[in-house]
Amino acid sequence: MPTPLHSDILILGGGLAGLTNALHLTKAGLHVRLLEKGEYPRHKVCGEYISNEVLPYLDSLGFDPFALGATAMERCLLSTVEGKTVEAPLPLGGFGLSRYRMDNELYKLVLAQGGEILQETVEDVQFNQDQFTVSTRSGQEYTAPLVIGAFGKRSKLDVALDRPFMQKNAPYLGVKAHYAGDFPEDLVALYNFDGGYCGVSKVEEGRINICYLANYNTFKTYKNLATYEQEVVRKNPLLNEILHQVTPLFERPLTISQISFARKENVCEHVLMSGDAAGMIHPLCGNGMGMAITSAQLLSQEILQYFTSKHPDRQRLEAAYSAQWQQQFRKRLLFGRAFNALFYRPQFFAASISLLTILPGMLPFFIRQTHGEVVDG
Asked: Prior bond to 364 cis, omega within 30?
């Protein structure tokens, strides 16, 4: 057995939250190791829209999305199944950038700051005598006083930690691909269809990101994605027009199943959860990436207080992070669940669109409920 490798922080998972945590903590002078089973760069199922609320924080980390070709967005559009629409300005604005490019750039920034990112598959996490021991498939062990769980929406580690949300129904399927074609650069749009909704927006290099979330119960009666898209997704005439005019840039769409929006603990068995592992907002709210970045910031700040304290207190750290997380995101999640319920009831959603056409100022109000204030660096 190789000698265990020790660090100040172990981060399990190298998605948006894990990389942001790694960059923040490495820049602050801590010895950070991040364990990620995949390689960079790679595409992920994601809406790829981020609210401008996180721009000052990203700037403080040395990350400029617009230098990477991000598109600036100022408007949002909602469409019913029948194609009736309502449009409004985005209160803070946002930008589009692919996870392929964003994650890879964060990865390079972490390495440039001296952080370690290792391609490892984590098999087990143990906590004993105030220290974690993490075992990987390669047979290597890693130790650290703190571990961040940033392993995304659903992981084998959630099973190993016996997290309650894993016992609940997770009936959602996510599908995403990039396309070439015409679509307004400043617009992020959501198109309702029976059993789901589809987001369309631009990312770098003029690519169009089309990503939809469907209830698996509406999908399972069809043989494949192509049939489901033709028989269900394209019933929205506006979405059908877009899909008819664009050209796929992927050999095949990316998919992810068993997506859960159930409540999660922010800390489990002393593992500090970050990003989607701590909690997810429904994608139709359009701010999951911003939420992941903000949760990483909150956690990094609390961890730095822990390490600079004369008397580090794990219990205080865990309680403070959980309180901060709930204060920041509880209202967003409540509104997100309400919006999701509305989208899956087409008649109610159509009535809501009719009301919003009469009172268009209500849409920016609802958007603000699922977004936060500008996050300082």
From this structure: no
